[in-house]
Amino acid sequence: MLIGFVIAYLLVSIGVGLYAATKVKTTTDYVAAGRHLPLYIVTATVFATWFGSETVLGISATFIDEGLRGLWSDPFGASLCLILVGLFFARPLYRMNLLTLGDYYRTRYGRTVEVLCSLAIVISYLGWVAAQITALGLVFNILTDGAISNEAGMMIGAAVVLIYTLFGGMWSVALTDFMQMIVIIIGLFYIAWLVGDMAGGVGMVLNHASEAGKFNFLPAFEAKDIIAFLAGILTMGFGSIPQQDVFQRLNSARNEKIAVRGTLLGGSGYFVFAFVPLFIAYSAALIDPELVAEYQDSDSQQILPQLILTHTPLFAQVMFFGALLSAIMSTASGTLLAPSVTFSENILRGTFPRMKDHSFLWLTRSVVVAFALLITWYAMNTEESIHGMVENAYKVTLATAFVPLAFGLYWKRASTQGALASILLGLVVWVLLEIVAPEADVPPHFAGMLAGIIGMLAGSLLPQTLVKPVHGHVASHLQTSHHGHAGH
């Protein structure tokens, strides 16, 4: 019966996605939902950006193992990213009326920077989307008690997400995100109430976690720990800002004010609600310590779903797995669409400059299919945990794409030469340190970002000999956007 409910829910999701496809007439409709989304849908879709397998299964398992110190990157860094985007990036980027984030790099720095940063963005999604596909495989495997293997579950999950994302694009992502957010909130709050009661009450769970040292958050007062703390929070806090899925959600808003408010509300909602799965998972330590001990040694991501299957009634199982599938699919759809449209718009578009919009829309859809196949293959062949895949996803954008974006918006003298120096230096330092000193006190990707800042400053302040500096009118346009934001 539980499997029947899950199948019915998947079919409803596909139905909503296919209905959304009727709204898609142009590439802008497909990529940015025609820039028509109201505040409540923008808030829901921003909330769903990060609320995926990582939040329900990944960080809850990490919390049981390491406490809050293991969660510097998510939810703290992830929430910081969305808040920073709402405060400093949403308004100027929305005003530019772009289709993708890659378009910003072209407008500000030229074609070469556009291609390099777009490639970095596309590569960063490999681990992020693969984490969602891995989680779908895990869910189907658990639901069928092993009858469906992890690999077969990954293929089924990828197929469902692909079907409803393929035709409706951002309209599908937005409408299914809204439906799925409602299921997530109702489902997880209900489970938290039920499981908390079984564990002896909220106070009992919190006291147990506190006594076990799980609420220790701040780093030790020593250089190595402070650097690890900053790198943990800023890898996702900064590295996730130059991401197409974050940009396309704010860019789909009906107006500039909704873009800003929706991003801030979605980011704040994510931070608050991310603690609900932590509470549910930690309750397992009181309800069934043997189950926790068993899966901590083999796969701690199984603790939460196994607790629900073995200790709750059918209705609670339906609510939990409905919420879990909602969380995974809402993230998977947006993160499947984002790299696909970036690749087609910012890398392929230059190869087919005369292609009509209708034909380009179908080319974009074919890229979505190709990326889904690549991601599924990668997910089936990696040994990385869900939490590990997500943490690693943003290293490449932190080292290469963040500095050109932030400096381009807020420093008038940022030039094409500075951007290229930043990308090159950030990439080289990051990759070299990953090879020679992966466990260094300063993490390689964080060192790459610092090198990128040096590259940007040096490349922009030195005589512009390698390439022409950025056209003045573009820089002044961006600067106007910045001052307009500050003046409100």
Structure, explained:
It is found in: Membrane. The chain crosses the membrane at residues 6-25, 37-64, 76-94, 115-140, 152-175, 182-206, 226-243, 264-287, 314-338, 359-380, 392-411, 418-437, 443-462. Its main location: membrane. It holds the Pfam family SSF. It is a multi-pass membrane protein. This protein is mostly helical and 488 residues long. It has two domains: 2-394, Sodium/glucose cotransporter (Up-down Bundle), CATH 1.20.1730; 401-488, no CATH class. The chain has 23 helices and no strands. The chain has helices spanning 2-21, 27-32, 39-50, 53-66, 72-95, 101-109, 111-143, 150-198, 202-211, 223-239, 244-251, 256-273, 275-287, 289-298, 303-311, 314-348, 357-380, 386-393, 395-400, 402-410, 416-436, 444-461, 472-487. α3 (39-50) packs antiparallel against α11, α3 (39-50) crosses α12 and α7 (111-143) packs across α21 (416-436). The longest helix has 49 residues, at 150-198. 55% of the residues are buried.
Using the coordinates shown, work out and report the CATH topology of the largest domain: Sodium/glucose cotransporter
Determine Rg (CA atoms, Å): 22 Å
Strands, total number? 0
Strand content: under 5%
Number of helices: 23
Task: Based on the coordinates given, report the CATH architecture of the largest domain.
Answer: Up-down Bundle
Biggest sheet features? none
Structure class: mainly alpha
Number of domains: 2
What is the structure about, briefly put?
With 488 residues, the chain is mainly alpha-helical. It contains 23 helices and no strands. The longest helix has 49 residues, at 150-198.
